[in-house]
Design a protein that fits this description.
Low-confidence stretches: none
Helix content: 40-55%
Structural class: alpha/beta
CATH topology: Rossmann fold
CATH architecture: 3-Layer(aba) Sandwich
Mean pLDDT: 88
Order of helices and strands: EHEHEHEHEHH
Length: about 180
């Protein structure tokens, strides 16, 4: 059994309605916990403790098996803040990351491998999406990945101190914030 499954966020509208793609990700994470493939489910994103919590509990997950990371605003933040605020604090080293297949394949897997580093055993599960072979989506994912790769210079994978400095100095969503 893995320690936890991290479900990467997706769109939530102003009324708190989850996108269909997000529901697929959540359903896969829920399935993994229910089938005893992971002990905890980690929900990421600013609204995870509100809108998403109800969905997960309504699907049968006990509240004490749900962990929240609500600082992140993108995939980089999901990897970094989940590591800093949950994985290290609770000594969770064996994890599953769930997202859409295209997101895992073209970007999220590389981001999590880099930010978490070698001390974590990571399995990736991609849920089906019609976007997997969509050229525009692939192009957007690749452009985002190139921007990510250019940000890090010669920083080593898993170097928490340097990664945090870089995020707080250079990343538009977290720049100059006291996190």
């Amino acid at each position: 059994m893995k320690d936890a499954v991290i479900v990467l966020s997706h769109k939530i509208d102003k009324r708190g309605r989850l996108s269909e793609e997000y529901k697929k990700r959540l359903d896969k994470g829920i399935e993994l916990v229910v089938r005893k493939k992971a002990e905890y489910i980690i929900l990421c994103g600013e609204k995870a403790d509100k809108d998403v919590k109800k969905y997960v509990i309504d699907k049968g997950i006990q509240a004490d098996k749900i962990l929240f990371q609500t600082t992140s605003k993108d995939t980089i933040g999901e990897a970094f803040f989940t590591k800093k605020q949950i994985l290290i604090q609770k000594n969770l080293r064996n994890i599953i990351v769930v997202s859409s297949g295209y997101h895992i394949r073209y970007r999220a897997g590389l981001i999590f491998d880099f930010i978490l580093g070698k001390n974590f055993n990571i399995e990736y599960v991609g849920v089906r999406s019609s976007k997997l072979n969509n050229v525009k989506v692939i192009e957007d994912q690749m452009n985002s990945l190139v921007a990510f790769l250019k940000s890090w210079g010669d920083i080593s994978a898993g170097d928490d101190e340097e990664i945090e400095k870089t995020i707080l100095k250079n990343h538009d969503l977290y720049k100059n914030q006291d996190l």
